[in-house]
Amino acid sequence: MTARSETAARRAAGTCVALLRALRAAVCDDPRALAELTLAADELAAAAASPLRAAAMPLADHLEARERTRAARAGRVRGLMAGTDPDRLAVRADEAIDACERALEGAGCGTVGTEEGPVRLVDVVRALTIEARLLADRCGVVPDRAGAAQALRACSQVLGERFGGLSIELRVPPTTAVQLRAPGGGPVHHRGTPPNVVETDPDTFWALCTGALTWERAHEKHLLRVSGVHAAEVARMLPVVSPR
């Protein structure tokens, strides 16, 4: 594990915790949101405390596995809410986030155990950053710049893991960029910029990744800059996460 990887993992963890704290401050009267924050912090703390010597699944596979267990997590959220008033839930959320922050200190970016299987801790952080931003959307909370950007980079990473290649370049300046293969087949470019390019802004990219906006509607609203005969095949790769 390089010092650079350690630094990146610590930064990602700090960004995720900061996003959880900002959400906690904004949803103090929302029992469901408080329970979801508590569960997310508990899961992250448990992962940080469970180092493994095992091959880690990619972030994309981890997100798919979490989608399969979403109903079970919703049941846990209901359990946290049952018979508990918002004030007590708020205290519980604060305790969980504090414990999560302590667990992440010095935890690095190695493989950890989760209910879905072995995953790099930094990818657990990235998955929960995506879910925290989805919760922020639902609650009408605007995430800070670092949290919003980290969720976008996580989505970009997932696209790269699922569709990595050298046919299309997807750009989201100033946040992220990824090179992808054309699902229907396309030219492979080994030097410089691929002949097919899609560029959009961070808000549009997030909406596309979460299913809040379709490719067709984004194109109609002139939110996409598309060049090359295969560039529009990015539409077949979206959304990254299931719409909530």
Provide structural commentary:
The chain is α+β, with helices and mostly antiparallel strands. It folds into 2 domains: 3-143, no CATH class; 155-237, Nonspecific Lipid-transfer Protein, Chain A (2-Layer Sandwich). The chain has helices at residues 3-26, 31-48, 59-68, 70-81, 86-104, 121-139, 145-163, 202-209, 215-220; strands spanning 111-114, 117-120, 164-172, 176-180, 196-199, 225-227. The strands form 2 sheets. A 4-stranded mixed β-sheet has the order 4-3-5-6. It has a two-stranded antiparallel sheet with strand order 1-2. The longest helix has 24 residues, at 3-26.
What oligomeric assembly is this protein in?
A: single chain
Report on the biggest sheet.
4 strands, mixed
Instruction: Write down the domain tally.
Output: 2
Q: How much of the sequence is in beta strands?
A: 5-15%
| Alpha-carbon distance between the two ends | 35 Å
Give the total of beta strands: 6
- If strands are numbered along the chain, what order do they take across the biggest sheet? 4-3-5-6
Secondary-structure-derived class: alpha+beta
Helix content: 55-70%
String of helices and strands: HHHHHEEHHEEEHHE
Low-confidence regions: none
Concise structural overview:
The protein has 244 residues and is α+β, with helices and mostly antiparallel strands. The chain is built from nine helices and six strands, in the order H-H-H-H-H-E-E-H-H-E-E-E-H-H-E. The strands form two sheets. Strands 4-3-5-6 form a four-stranded mixed beta sheet. Strands 1-2 form a two-stranded antiparallel sheet.
